[in-house]
Amino acid sequence: MDPTRPRITTEELPPDNYPSPQTELRQETNFQKNIRPNPKFSRYFFLIPALLILLTIFLVGFISSRLFNRQKTQVPMSYSLPPALSPATPIPTLRPVLKNKLFLSNSFEISFEYPEDVSLLECEEEIFFYRPRNEEATCNKPGSYLVTLKYSSFNFYPRIDFEKNPDETITKIDDEEAVIQALKNDPPQISVTFSKDKKYFLIETKESQGKSLIDALLETLKFNKDITKNWEEYTNKRFGFSFKYPENWQIASKSDVKLVVKKDINEEKFQTLTIESQEVNQASLTAQEFISSTRSLAGWKITPSVDLRNFGGGTAYILKGQFNGYWHSFVVIWYKNKIIQILWYDDLSRENEQIFESVLNSLRFFTPTLS
Questions:
Q1: Gap between the Cα atoms of 272 and 359, Å rounded
Q2: pTM (2 d.p.)
């Protein structure tokens, strides 16, 4: 025994329940063990930051999209949105304002106006009116028509049997008496008879739409007065035709194949008459092709109706209507193997329409002089 080592008695020994350093260490370790995460869950701790990052990205994207949509649906204050359940209001389609075409005939010795969308077929002693045009109609087979106007040297009156008790009224046509008879059938039957200088006329319809057209004819119908007596005459010996034009009009350019006549020599387009001539093998077919291609042009306010008429022995297709803001007439006349194209431009007042119609009625064809 080491004499220098202090001697410990039994009383100085620590009690049994006093924790020894090993016990303290063990208890501390147990406490730490109690507060340490369960190893089963600790392996997922790294997912928490990732979830937080994804949540942040989602919130930022959601808020940004709401702001963007709010800005997108904003409307200037001067405009107001319609109610969500309110049906859309259709935009009305504006119907074009139609103008009247002028018919003037030296053979019938009358003139009248008729709507722009009505076409007519002129025969030797009768005129047929159509809406729309009957492409297959001929003088021998006029087909179904809207109104007819006849000319004769014999009296037409009366047309409707008095036993049917028609309504009868008396009116005036260019200071001449006219008798209107009407049967209120379905469709109605209307007959108008009048005469001048032993020339007799009859206008008839058995169609429901015919009454409005007859009213338009009666309102504008006049007896012709020849205005071409003092006019100048142009003759084309190569193609064998001639026509008259006002004495105060001027020829702007002249050749056998093209002629330009103007009311005002300084005017570029209005009151200008252009005539082109050519010879072809199938004149009738070529004329139809010319009229068809011109009718399909995009500048017409409405697609023009085609009139079929006769001038000086030749047969003519005529287009008349509003074209690019002015009044345009296109005429194709064929006679044997000759084609004459006539262009006429005027303003929408159509103040010179009677002159143009008189020019057409003065047209004559003859056998050309061989040189």
A1: 12
A2: 0.72
